[in-house]
Amino acid sequence: MSMLLKNISQVVTFNDKDEILNGVDILVNNNEIVSIGKNISVDENVEIIDCSNLMALPGFVNTHHHLYQTLFRGIQEVQEKPLFPWLVGLYEFWKHLTPEAVHYGALVGFSELLRTGCTTTMDHHYVFPENKPGTLIDDQLRAASQIGIRFHATRGSMSLGRSDGGLPPDCVVQKKEAILEDSERLINKYHDNSKFAMQRIALAPCSPFSVSKELMIQARDLARKKGVMLHTHLAETKDEENFCIERYGRRPVELMEELGWIGPDVWFAHVIHLNEKEMETLKGSGVAHCPSSNMKLNSGICPTTELLKAGVKVSIAVDGSASNDGSNMWEEVRRAYLLNHLKYGTDGLNAYEMLKVATRGGAEVLGRDDIGILERGKAADIVLFDLTDVAYAGCHDPLVGLVTCGNTSLVKMTIVNGKVVVKDGILLTMNTEKIRTEAHKIASDIVKYEREHR
């Protein structure tokens, strides 16, 4: 199958030359970009899509999420709380998760992401309630295949329950042996290391306050044996910092260095509370910056500009919907830009640089060089934006307009792996109303049950 995106007003490539091309076409064959140029000629079998007055970017790459949390938005018991009390309150609801809940939670999050310009996402699922099937990652992968998003699933885990000094209740943690066994099963069954892979697996022990050092070490060894990446939360709050110092005698980044969790195959979520030396330690590793979550939970501001200068790979992420309350990737770029300028003022990242972080930056954090760039030989993950709305009138730079203007975050078109999955803000692969109805019923039943039985 081939398609020609004809007469695109502006193509922002994020290639090595940082080229921005005006009035060009993009020719896609199957899942690959085969040509970008003016007046490309094609035969009658090629679908032609008129892209006049549209801007094209590589799809956004979301590098940190908790998809199941889409079912737990706006729960009154945990509003206006910082991370640790927020988590303690939500564990009581999350302990009722079912495979159906995980599947529909993923479909909700995927729908939001695709409609707001995200073509590749990861997920960090670490809640495996006792007496429930341990194959919850499989339910997410099935949802990703159904809806048509490029997906990096991580086998998250918690092994340090409350009885052993951790934060989560014992009913949502697992034995180390079960975690490692399922991690290897998932890698063997699903991980695809080929070019343009739609599904990959990474290993992601949850956080320093919910897993043991032994699990971190053994997960590291398994991941490197199998050639997959590693992910965890890090340096998100002062509470986490204090926990690490009291339990391990190390600050969070120091702990990661001790455990061998540093390098190009590792990326961390948040990374807010660290010093200059620790930034140097993280050189070559990746960071998922989660602006909305960090603001709502009052966690702090990620030092994005300083991390980039230190050689750390930086990306943008929506984080879980129970702290962000949405999976809106376009809006997350806007907030990342504004938060960066709040911290750095005139030394902050400009619109182009922030969009590059959200696209190519995300790809690099996930260890990929086949996405995040619009050029020949790269994946046909393309998002088209319509900036002709009145909300963009008077804006003289489309890139600035894309980041700072507009009254909607629904994109004109999202193309993943050469297939149009969103058009005019409407998901084409599944019925979002059916997803919403079923997901909301499942969510309501879980919350009602917990409130009635506590």
From TrEMBL:
Q: What class of enzyme is it?
A: hydrolase
Alphabetical list of InterPro entries matching this protein: Amidohydro-rel (IPR006680), Metal-dep_hydrolase_composite (IPR011059), Metal_Hydrolase (IPR032466), MTA/SAH_deaminase (IPR050287)
Under Enzyme Commission nomenclature, its number is: 3.5.4.32
Q: Which SUPFAM superfamilies match?
A: Composite domain of metallo-dependent hydrolases (SSF51338), Metallo-dependent hydrolases (SSF51556)
Molecular function (GO) terms listed? 8-oxoguanine deaminase activity
On whether Coiled coil is a keyword of this UniProt record, the answer is no
Outline the extent of the Amidohydrolase-related domain. Answer: 55-421
Ordered alphabetically, the record's keywords are: Hydrolase
Name the record gives this protein? 8-oxoguanine deaminase
